[in-house]
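note to self — DONT lose this again. spent like an hour looking for the file last time. sequence + predicted structure for the chain T wanted, 457 res
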Amino acid sequence: MSETILIPLTQFDQSYLENFSITNGRVVQSLDIDALRAAVFRVVDKWRLLAGYVEWSNTLSKWCIRVPLQGDVSSRFTFTTSKIATRLHPSFVVNEQDPAHISTRPPLQYFRHESVPHDLQTYNSSRSPLFSVHVTELLNCTCVGLTIPHGVFDGGGSRQIIHALNQELHGKPWDPPAISQSNILQEALDDLEHAPSMYNDIHQETATYSALRRYFVPASVINVATLIASILYERARHNVESRAVYLGPKAIVKLRREAKGDLQSSEAPSVSMNNILAAWFFKAIHANETDDNVVALWSYNSIRETLAKKYPALMDYSHNAIVLHPITPFTKEELRTKSLKELAVLHRKALEPAGEIAWVQAYNTYLKKALGGHLILRRSGDDPWIYTNQVISRIDKLDLGSKLYAGWFWTTPHETNHHVAINRFKDGYTIQANAKATRWRAVAKAVEDLNVPDTRL
């Protein structure tokens, strides 16, 4: 038997993410399937972590990855193909002729083979490969899906895989991330746990912790069943649709101008496109609503950059290093009446604490006390949204050698109805969401406004 090492994961991998997988999908004009398969083989052969398999450690009481350091890796990735004699409908691709455009997500079966597991328990029992690629050839295009278990990788790990694959496809050098039997994130968290407190009691009174106590509940059987029931009810009652807004370069310039005003002004607010896109989308999707419900926004944030201030090696960490950061809730009236600039600045300020090591220390302390996986519970009078910035994965950097028509993202086996993901698409962005039809009509009106020619552009 070839030599192996055991890499332990952390509580961030077992905070309910272990029940899901991630699929990044690309729709291209054509594809050299043999070249892609060969590139995947070389990536897995060089980066041995991808050749590993999920293993439960009774000693550590956590999931681990058993990594083979030697041997053939031909069976340690999944590469499947199919052909379907149909054409992909234009509604599933991005229309780049307009500054902004709404498209519909195509069927998952085009991008993910049904045999690929979702949760770590099944990855473990089946010893399934960690990296899966599925290619579907249609009459007018080719769909490509890359799937990984979310209980092992987040957007940062996905970025490393995508970078390696792109380099191999184009014959460029790359260095696989280092692997070792220790977990550098766990070491950093242990160090912070035993370090003097960097935060004080006032942190317990902030909006962050108020929201954690109100919405963040244990992933018990009852709470999971309650969440799934609410998802199914809304889908049956309100016609939930999975769609995406494409915002091209002209639309982005418009939004930047509205959010920042005169870009030459030294007093222009320091807001990112992430802040602007979040503010625009949630303002747009609730524009027609006058009820008293509170819009509670939760943002998935990477803590790599924050912890790397003290632990530099974490910038190259491959596994989950993301936390759900609650944003100060908005009323529907605030979303209607506040300007895009005001909302973008509020979004930026709400995320600022997560940039401090003290906040990560406090958050880790909270999770340790809470124990186990958690999820966002929906309560009467609330409209909670989970917002994830998938730009971190840099899927836009994957060049498959052919014209790109569309890009899509999935978490499986199920997604919440109030789930939003932003991503780069060529020179613009996409905002993908699961929302009821009435809300998509409100977004369509905002898209119409962006498509009105701006004489200043």
